[in-house]
Design a protein that fits this description.
The protein is of the alpha+beta class. It folds into 2 domains: 61 residues; 121 residues, Immunoglobulin-like, CATH 2.60.40. It contains 2 helices and 13 strands, in the order ααβββββββββββββ. The chain has a 4-stranded antiparallel beta sheet, with no helix packed on it. It has a 3-stranded antiparallel beta sheet with strand order 6-10-11, with no helix packed on it. A two-stranded antiparallel ribbon has the order 1-2. A hairpin with a 7-residue loop joins strand 3 and strand 4. Helix 1 packs antiparallel against helix 2. The longest helix is centred in the N-terminal third of the chain and has 34 residues. The radius of gyration is 44 Å and the shape is globular.
Length: 245
């Protein structure tokens, strides 16, 4: 209804302007002759301008009405639904983005949520250990890097890692799943200088997840050589080659 009233007002103004010019044209030009042709031309020009102004005003009004109704014309014609701010138009025009959100990364494993045990690899001369870390936390977690193992006092330092053992993909443990590490304690030589340990500590330094005390799998203890010991990185399974050192 408001559009119709505005259109009537514009047309009435245009008609009045044309009539005024026509009456002016009917007057004398000072010579006693009428300039009807020129007046008619001017009248037509003004009428056309008024009509164009009316169309422009009506077009603007239509755009305002469309904005109020929540619809807009598409570029190629027709109508489309106005897009709400902050949304992304999908290829199917649904106004929502496609795909699913990526899953959040797993939290880091902690010593409290793991059961860490050691088994001596078959020998003799029993030069290697296999550490197992079973996820008992009830939720998935990530094991990072390698265990910081102290076989002896802290002054002797940690067992250094072997670079080739580092896995390419993150090690994610589901509940009940285990991660493994191969550990070399010595070379098993007869003239090798070793020391005996009956328990040692494993710290999840990279995880910031605390420390666990691990008992020797052998009652007599383990023979370790600080000059030869080495450890692998946490993996979900021991791999031939990468964990052979």
């Amino acid at each position: 209804m408001r559009t119709f009233r505005d259109r009537t007002t514009v047309l009435a103004a245009a008609t009045a302007a044309a009539l005024a010019l026509t009456l002016t044209a009917c007057g004398d030009d000072g010579t006693g002759t009428r300039s009807e042709g020129s007046a008619a031309s001017d009248s037509a020009t003004v009428a056309a301008s008024a009509a164009e102004s009316g169309k422009a005003a009506e077009s603007g009004k239509t755009t305002d009405d469309a904005a109020e109704s929540g619809t807009t014309d598409s570029v190629g014609g027709g109508t489309g639904t106005a897009q709400a701010a902050g949304t992304t138009q999908s290829s199917d025009g649904s106004g929502t983005t496609g795909g699913t959100a990526s899953k959040a990364s797993a939290p880091l494993c902690t010593a409290k949520g793991l059961t860490i045990t050691a088994e001596r690899q078959d020998g003799p001369p029993y030069t290697h250990l296999t550490l197992s870390a079973k996820n008992t936390s009830g939720a998935g977690c990530e094991m990072k890097e390698y265990p910081h193992i102290h076989f002896l006092d802290n002054a002797r330092g940690i067992v250094p890692p072997v670079a080739k053992s580092k896995p390419e993909a993150p090690v994610i443990l589901e509940p009940g799943q285990s991660a493994y590490v191969a550990v070399r304690m010595s070379e098993g030589g007869r003239k090798e200088s070793t020391e005996t340990v009956k328990e040692f500590t494993v710290t999840l330094k990279a995880n910031g997840g605390g420390m666990a005390v691990v008992r020797s799998p052998a009652a007599e203890g383990l023979s370790v050589n600080p000059q030869k010991w080495a450890t692998g990185y946490w993996t979900t399974e021991l791999r031939n080659g990468a964990d052979d050192f």
